[in-house]
Amino acid sequence: MNKAKAILEMRHVVKHYRQGAMDVPALRGLDLIVSPGEFTALSGPSGSGKTTALNLIGALDSPTSGKVILEGKDLTTLGRSALSRMRRDRIGFVFQAYNLIPVLTAYENAEIVLALQGVAPEKRRERVYQLLSDVGLEGMEHRRPDQLSGGQQQRVAIARAIAADPAVVLADEPTANVDSETAEKILDIMAALNQTQGVTFIFSTHDPRVMARARRNVHLADGRIVRDETT
Fold first, then answer.
1. Cα 106 to Cα 71, 121, 125, 138, 161, distances in angstroms
2. How many C-alpha atoms does 94 have within 13 Å on its Cβ side?
3. Distance (Å, rounded) from C-alpha 15 to C-alpha 65?
4. 142/118 Cα distance (integer angstroms)
5. How far apart (Å, rounded) are the C-alpha atoms in residues 231 and 1?
6. Does the pLDDT value for residue 13 go beyond 70?
7. What is the pTM of this model?
8. What radius of gyration do the chain's Cα atoms show?
9. How confident is the model at residue 199 (pLDDT cuts 50, 70, 90)?
10. Which class for 47: exposed (0-12), middle (13-18), buried (19 or more C-beta within 10 A)?
11. Which residues pair with 172 in a beta bridge?
12. Quick one: which of 38, 71, 134, 139 has the fewest CB in 10 Å?
């Protein structure tokens, strides 16, 4: 990867968790560079460190040592308010459990980041309706999550993740809770957004379907990168 054009750098990242009296290593000196427009999977068995890495990239956790640099900013040096702004403005999240707000409609869930940013209502409306159409939910804008299938909820989550045009979208096991056909459709949507709009995606996954669709597979084991393959 070209460091001059890197959107993300992880430099010698170590992460330990405390479990009782034990210090448990999750990442053991991870070095990773991601360029804009990548469609990358972090893969590996349970306990390999892939979700930990995603949480550190997303500023949901902080490393024990090392640096996590997003768009030239070292996340490990930022205060709480600055990190909150980074998560709001520059990082999109797609969770395996969807994490939609139950009392809000699909439109309102997809709109929420733009509303927090203070984007004008008319611009929000134009952006959100287009996004929901892009992910195949035209006509379902006013349904709440409990009126949507799992796959439809994940589509709302994707629309929400990219609404603010973030630097990177982090998808944690995005196909884990849907059937095979729906998983393929979700991957189709993400691949199309990557190819047509240049959205950078980083997945954590053990799903062979995701790994097959990714253009770069970074395989982790015991908190280290063991293979980094680009197709």
1. 30, 16, 12, 10, 13
2. 33
3. 7
4. 22
5. 13
6. yes
7. 0.92
8. 17
9. very high
10. middle
11. 95, 204
12. 139
